[in-house]
Amino acid sequence: MKTILITGATSGIGLAAAKKLAKSKNQLILCGRRQRKLDEISSELSKTSNILSLCFDVSEKNEVTKLLDNLPEGFSSIDILINNAGNAHGMDTIQDGSLEDWDNMIDSNVKGLLYVSRIIIPKMIEKQSGHIINIGSLAGREVYEKGNIYCATKHAVNAISKAMRIDLNKTGIKVSEINPGLVETDFSNVRFKGDNNRAEKVYQGCKALQADDIA
Ligand code: 8X3
Fold it and tell me: Residue 210: exposed, middle, or buried by beta-carbon count in 10 A (0-12, 13-18, 19+)?
């Protein structure tokens, strides 16, 4: 049995991964920003797995530190960290981009991933084992029109994953990065701030990957 911490576990790839991993009788630490969603998911998945849910925003440094540094007994030794939390906000040319959107993306996709990892990695080093799985994106390999800062954050995830792999090479910790292309989740809905029409168009004319495929 492994203890697996998943950030962004209340929707999309994070939720699909939680559901799959709960079936293999692992114990899960599910992290997300929405308490009600976390409660719903926890009560469903606790039928087959031990679940701890933690409600916090990965970009809130103090909350991340307070909660992850004080994990309850039985959940404090993490085997697998899935850094999944993150999103796209807005899709504008760089000259029109919203500073608030840029802050949101940099804060969660980059800084949030770092805050969580910085707490968990030393705990993994202590036991000389662990596996970190960062959810990157094809947007971390290529840049597309109006993708600018979202792509920049995913390029950062790519660089951080490589850096982790190098720095942790002698520690027994494995580092993986998964770089999906188009996945049909709430991703576009969030990117377009609830504009369903615009979001649906993204997936028209192609058979997009589903969250379950990535999980
Ligand atoms: C999402 C992939 O190609 O829509 O990370 O930016 S893409």
Answer: middle
Q: pTM (2 decimals)? A: 0.96
Q: Which residue's CA is the closest to the ligand 1 atom numbered 6?
A: 139
- Which string of DSSP letters, residue by residue, matches 67-79? HHTTPPTTSSS-S
Enumerate the β-bridge partners of residue 82. Answer: 6, 133
Matching residue, tokens 């990157």: 136
Task: Report the alpha-carbon distance of residue 105 to residue 183 in Å, rounded.
Answer: 18
- The confidence band for 25, taking pLDDT boundaries of 50, 70 and 90, is confident
d(CA 195, CA 78): 38
Amino acid at 45: L
Tell me which residue of 27, 118, 14, 10 sits closest to 65, measured CA to CA: 118
**In what helix (H) or strand (E) does residue 21 lie, and over which residues does it extend?**
helix 12-23
Q: Does residue 159 line the site of ligand 1, with CB under 6 A?
A: no
3-state secondary structure of 164: helix
With beta carbons less than 8 A apart as the criterion, state whether 55 and 36 touch.
no
